[in-house]
Design goal:
The chain has about 475 residues and is α/β, with parallel strands linked by helices. Helices cover about 50% and strands about 15% of the residues. The chain is built from 17 helices and 17 strands. The chain has a four-stranded mixed beta sheet, with helices on one face. It has a four-stranded mixed beta sheet with strand order 10-11-13-12. Strand 6, helix 10 and strand 7 form a beta-alpha-beta unit. It is globular and about 75 Å long.
Length: about 475
Amino acid sequence: MYSWLKFKQAFRIVCVPRVFSRCLSSAEVSTALRPFYFNVHPDLFGKYPEQRKTNEYSLQQLSAFLEAQQSKRSITIPPLSFYVRQKDMPEGNFRLVKISLNSNDVRDTVVKVLNACDISTSYIDKIPRSTHKTEYSKSDVKAAYEKYTNDFGTIFNDIKRKVKEKKSASNLIEWIIENSAVAKEKYESTNATRKQVESLIERLCKNYGIKEVKYDSGWNISHIRGALQSLVSLSTQHSHHMDNLKDRTIALGQFTGVSLDGDVFLSIIDVRNEWLSLIKKVSQEDAALSMIPIYEKTLSSILRNIHVRRRKFMPKVSATQYCNHLRQLITSIGDFYGKGKKFSDLVPECLEKYEIVVEPEAGPLMVSPTGQFITPSSCPADELMAFIANHLDEATLLLTEYSINKHVERALYDEVKQRFELLDLRKDDSITPALMILCCQRLLTRKAHLNTLLRGNILYITHYYSVLNEGTLCIPWNFK
């Protein structure tokens, strides 16, 4: 926090007869940058460690630069890189933005950051650059300082605390010893928030006949509470539309739309008007749901009865989008056959023991770790047919391995959870059953050291060490 002297320097006024230029106030800076933080904050990139680390570092640099400008100091920082969440794009698709900051004016810095991320500057544009106030009284300065303390300082201190690089431990036991108690304290401190979340969910289900309200565990619990409060407020103002959600499952997550399972997804980062728009027309989305089995059966039949599956953690798309993806691929394969082309002679006449997953246009063409063929809907039929023919052996091996591993993983999962008396055991989407098995086996070999330390904690298996705000212990699957 600034000293009183530095604060006075930050709010120093340049005299011009009856006109005073001024810095943006702390409240104005924090309000202007709020949508920017919500797009790049590291807490929103928990599943993507590389992007999370980049944003953490750049936010530290931006924070230092703004502090220097507020105190009328001149510093130089390298160009800042931020991964920006893409609205209406599949999960994991980010835009990389590079920002060079060299101005000495806070306003110019804020505008440049917002413009680089395509965020409206209308709020800043409405703030005058000068004022006709002829005096800046001591009481005014004191009030501004108190406002700064409560708003700007609090926000930036919180950001710096969250983006501080997590120090990796040299071994798991050392790190658990250091952080186990901290995680439990954080979990207890968010107990009231979790109860509020449960109360809000119960209220929605009871009042509107909603079957279930669920949310992605990767989101901060305070974000979940805020989203639920917004939904309750929306339901109060538009109660006549809430009948459309009767007997439906509501999911707070990454996109707004009806999922392939018929769940009504509401994106936490969307505004309420977008939620209301979906709720009004949710029954229209059911038409797309009814078409999915027909499209999947058609695709299966033209690919020699291969099973069309959906990955548990595939990019989130609406039912309408998924229908479009299936139709696009079916059309491409139809054209392939229409030109007199066919599968290689090496491909069996029946592919019913294999599985294929159709994903958005920007997805990869690959064999997943569980043996499924993953194809983007835009993949040319020639390329898809050749890929399937060339990777049948690989898919067979991985399918067999997965059919064994999934049972072993479940048994080890239960054993680890019970042996260490965990509140919960979770894993990142990218941790395959094979990796989870190795991790669980290695945890059990350290039970003598970890038994009491892990008791009462939530353990999340991922690629890095971290303690989340709500008290979850994150450890890498290949810990030392």
